[in-house]
Design a protein that fits this description.
Blueprint lengths: L1 H35 L2 H18 L6 H7 L5 H24 L1 H8 L4 H9 L1 H17 L3 H24 L5 H21 L14 H31 L2 H35 L4 H28 L1 H9 L7 H6 L1 H10 L2 H7 L3 H22 L3 H25 L6 H27 L7 H21 L5 H11 L10
Length: 488
């Protein structure tokens, strides 16, 4: 078990560090492409991905998580899951082609035809990498997996920027979307010397398929809930409005997605390995939950307060219209950081049906929220979205912990520390920057405000909030010294 503890910590460190690299690469791509492409270019591609993105949820049919979550699995079972993934990928590609005329008719935009056709091939490419990627996660080979992900992202960004600079407009975004999964697929096949056997029946995958189907339906419900506003904006407000809103949403959600995704992969693999030891399971989960909140809460609040500076510096002054939506979406992203990690606990213990029930509760509330705000433009959508997510926060927490040793009090005891430290640090740093006379010098304001905020947050978190011993314990474990898992 000490070997597992070591793998968890080192895997988590590698994934978080890599996400810092990924975040930098994505910010560079946003900054460069945002200055070359127009809002309508992003709007056109988003019109397609907002709809075909639903099909993306079926690309692994939840079977990668089934491979990781299972306490024991055979080569025959993995092979069976591989061929199921291939068939699902082929079906999704054909459905993406079939939906193309509908997209063109609904949006009244003929340019969507070839965008949709081109992106259809990504489903089969993704299907080829599902089980190889899952095996890397199951074996907790996160260093290798991270290198492959960084390489695929870097190559796709280079290809996209090259296409944009060559004058291909929105096709640059299509190039990025296709090259990333292709490079990733090549990488995982190179890293995992496993070759699938012939398709076979009766190898004991029924329970895993049922788990995968439930998790896929759960993902589908959440995808619709969290993305239907993009369809509404594109349909009723147009490509330019969708492009602006989409840039704001993507920019503010990148840090949360990166850090939650990085820690989540390690956490899910580790929690699945200790799912039968509830005491260790709860302790591992709360430690992972703390790491996510420690990283995501301050970054989200920073984005909310320094919205104008971040948008202007990262994607340019021509995107200033995105600033209000960027700021108003901050509560939504903050709630995501608090809720999304709870799925690790449910999925690792096989409670996919409970997770689906929570998704079915959230979806209508969220859709009603931003649908009511649509009449007030993209900013009204952002406000409705944030209010709806805040209303869902506490009920979801209670539902997750029901019947377990966890409690909402335990979750809140983890949450208040980074939240308090972030609020105090942002109040001081933003207040100081606001008193400066350089109101239009956005880069200078960031150069002053960000280091000040970071130093204040770290100092408050370690000392007044009392987290010094906790993080010192983590550091000792990472250095290979014998130390118990830090307590909460």
């Amino acid at each position: 078990m000490s070997d597992l503890k070591s793998k968890v910590l080192r895997g988590g460190l590698v994934r978080v560090t890599a996400q810092g690299v990924n975040l930098t690469l994505r910010m560079v791509s946003i900054a460069v492409l945002g200055r070359i492409l127009e809002p309508s270019d992003y709007g056109l591609v988003t019109m397609v991905t907002a709809v075909t993105g639903v099909l993306t949820l079926f690309r692994d049919f939840g079977l990668s998580n089934a491979t990781v979550q299972s306490s024991q699995i055979t080569n025959e079972q993995i092979s069976a899951l591989f061929w199921i993934n291939i068939w699902v990928g082929l079906v999704m590609s054909l459905l993406a082609l079939a939906v193309t005329p509908v997209l063109v008719a609904v949006y009244g935009e003929p340019r969507l035809k070839w965008i949709s056709i081109a992106l259809a091939g990504s489903f089969l490419i993704n299907a080829l990498s599902v089980q190889h990627s899952a095996l890397l996660r199951r074996e907790m080979r996160f260093v290798v997996l991270t290198l492959i992900e960084v390489m695929s992202l870097a190559i796709s960004i280079i290809a996209g920027i090259a296409a944009a600079m060559s004058g291909y407009g929105y096709w640059a975004l299509v190039v990025m979307a296709l090259s990333a999964p292709l490079v990733y697929m090549i990488g995982v096949w190179w890293a995992v010397p496993w070759v699938p056997g012939r398709p076979a029946r009766n190898v004991g995958v029924r329970a895993m398929v049922q788990f995968g189907v439930t998790t896929t339906v759960n993902s589908l419900v959440m995808y619709v809930a969290y993305n239907f506003e993009k369809f509404l904006i594109g349909r009723f407000l147009g490509a330019d409005a969708l492009g602006i809103y989409g840039r704001a949403y993507q920019l503010i959600s990148i840090p949360n997605e990166n850090f939650t995704g990085a820690i989540g992969e390690v956490a899910f693999s580790a929690l699945s390995r200790v799912q039968d030891d509830r005491e260790r399971l709860d302790r591992y989960f709360l430690n992972g939950y703390r790491m996510v909140l420690t990283l995501c809460v301050p970054v989200t609040l920073l984005c909310g307060f320094f919205a104008e500076e971040i948008v202007t510096v990262v994607i340019g002054e021509k995107w200033m219209a995105a600033v209000p939506s960027f700021r108003l979406l901050a509560p939504t992203i903050l709630v995501f950081a608090m809720l999304n990690p709870l799925s690790w606990y449910l999925m690792s213990t096989g409670q996919a049906k409970r997770s689906l029930g929570i998704a079915l509760m959230i979806a209508p509330v969220v859709i009603a929220g931003y649908a009511l705000g649509l009449a007030y433009g993209i900013n009204g959508v952002a406000v409705g979205y944030s209010i709806a997510m805040l209303l869902c926060l506490v009920p979801c927490m209670y539902w997750v912990v029901q019947g377990s040793a966890l409690s909402v009090r335990a979750l809140l005891s983890v949450l208040w520390r980074p939240l308090f430290a972030s609020l105090l640090a942002i109040s001081v740093s933003y207040g100081v920057v606001s008193m400066l006379t350089v109101h239009e010098a956005h880069l200078l304001r960031l150069l002053i405000g960000l280091p000040m905020f970071g130093a204040l947050y770290l100092g408050i978190l370690l000392y007044p909030v009392g987290q010094r011993a906790y993080y010192l314990g983590l550091a000792k474990m990472l250095l290979g010294r014998d130390a118990p898992m830090p307590s909460l």
